[in-house]
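Need tokens for this chain, all 131 residues.
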Amino acid sequence: MTEPPRRPAGQWTPAELGVHHVTGDGLMPAYVRRPHDEQLQAVLDPETEYSRLVVIRGDALSGKSRAAYEAVTGVLADWTLEHPPTVAALAARLEAGISPRTVLWLGELRHHADADRGAAILGLLDDVLDG
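Here are the structure tokens for all 131 residues:
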């Protein structure tokens, strides 16, 4: 199995992480900051010494992925970001261990949870967070 790509968070494009374009021309419009952005950036504070799982909830196409992208690339741009393309790739990464200063971008968590072995994979994620 090939490993998912990993490179600094600031080197990923929004499209590579599943952020939807909202215009027909394929260009990503300027980001409009909203009140929750400060809270999201605070949760991602790189000085925090513990692992954390950040889940952003909201209606479809409300800007959840874009808000996460802007926060991660703004606050943790030099951290490694991994985006496992499949449930199997996620399981392999969790079993191998996640290095410090790594963002594990899961996108739609429900796709992982609903897959075969979903409960086991979430258990591995829990183990990593407790690590």
